Every structure is written in C-alpha cells, then in structure tokens.
Amino acid sequence: MKLDPHHYDAVAARSECLVTADGIDAALERMAQAVTERLAGKDPLVLCVMTGAVFVSGLLLPRLSFQLRVDYIHASRYRGDTRGGELHWLYRPSAAIRGEHILVLDDVLDEGTTLRHVIDACHADGALSVHSAVLVAKDRAHECEADIVGVEVPDRYLYGYGLDYRNYFRNAPGIYAVAEADI
Fold first, then answer.
1. Is the peptide bond preceding residue 51 cis, with omega within 30 degrees of 0?
2. How far apart are the C-alpha atoms of 153 and 11, rounded to whole Å?
3. Has residue 106 got a pLDDT over 70?
4. How much is the pTM?
5. Looking at the domain assignment, is residue 6 inside a domain?
6. 123, exposed or middle or buried, with CB in 10 Å at 0-12, 13-18, 19+?
7. Domain that holds residue 51
C-alpha cells in the first residue's frame, strides 16, 4: 500500500525518536565485538533475514574483520501490515546451512516468533551452531531471545534502520516510535 505524501509527513511528524544515529552506531560497535568473540575463527555463514536486516547487515558486516560468508533467508509475518500474522517462507537456503556455524541477523526482536522459526529451521537443516543478533529488541516477553542485542526499547511500533511502517521509513536515521493514532 502506497502512502499518500501528506500521510507520510504526518506520521513522521508525530513519531518519537527513541535511538539516534549515534546510538545505533555505538550499538553496532558493541554488536561487532560480541559477534567477533563468538564467531571469529569459525568461518560462519551469516544469514540476513530479509528485508529489514539488509540495513543491519550492511552496517555490521564491515565491522567484522574475520572470515565469513553471507547468504539470506526470507521469512515474513508482517508483509506491509502493522500486525504480524502467519509466517511465510519466501526463501530458505537449506542446503547451504548443513554443517555450518550460522549467524542469523535480524532488525527487530518483537514477539520472537520469526526468530524462533528461523533458528529452528537452521537446526533442522543441520547447522553446527546457530547464533542470533538483532539490532533492536522490544522490552517485552519473547518466544525466544537473541544472543546479541544492539539496543532495547519500549514495546511500541517502530521504524528506522530497516524496521518499517507499512513498507516505508526503513531508511529513517534513527529508531522511531509511531504515534498510537497511526497504528
């Protein structure tokens, strides 16, 4: 669904910045250190969870100075909506996972449903080990926890740095909370 330009501007004006670009940069540095401690020397296969984690991957991977490979996995529950539904697999690289140390990178840990399904799929596909990292975790109960978290924020509808609002705002220069009226 395309947003009317006036609606787009109004949503942005009513949103609250929870984490600035500088805060994200510091979080990425901490994440890079934690990933390095866990996976340096293991030649991991990094799986970017599409589409939101494209941003996290692009900003985090250049900070890792060890041997790794990159692929992606595409599973979605939102599909442009503001509420998660049933998980839909769009791409699952099963053969590439067998016998590998896996790092799953995602943009946000909300309920943890998608991350749980992705981690379970990696184990089912024969991964040697599975580690997970998310840029943002909401302060709430999760079905599973990420091993590495960049920042924790209140449980609100978010956008920026890969997180979207109705397929928009992924490129926002911070993590923003959408006003209740816009959800």
1. yes
2. 19
3. yes
4. 0.91
5. no
6. middle
7. 17-78+100-178
Neighbours of 66 (CB within 10 A): 12
Q: Domain for residue 88, yes or no?
A: no
CATH assignment at residue 116: 3.40.50.2020
What tokens does 53 get?
Answer: 């984690």
Does the residue 2 lie in any domain? no
How far, in Å, CA of 152 to CA of 140, rounded? 10
Catalogue the E-assigned strands of the chain.
Answer: 16-20, 45-50, 69-76, 88-91, 101-109, 129-138, 148-153, 158-159, 174-177
pLDDT 10s digits, 121-179:
999 999 999 999 999 999 999 999 999 999 999 999 999 999 999 889 999 999 999 99
Convert the pLDDT of each residue in 33-77 to its tens digit: 999 999 999 999 999 999 899 999 999 999 999 999 999 999 876
Q: Count of domains in the chain?
A: 1
Look at residue 9 and tell me if it is in a domain.
Answer: no
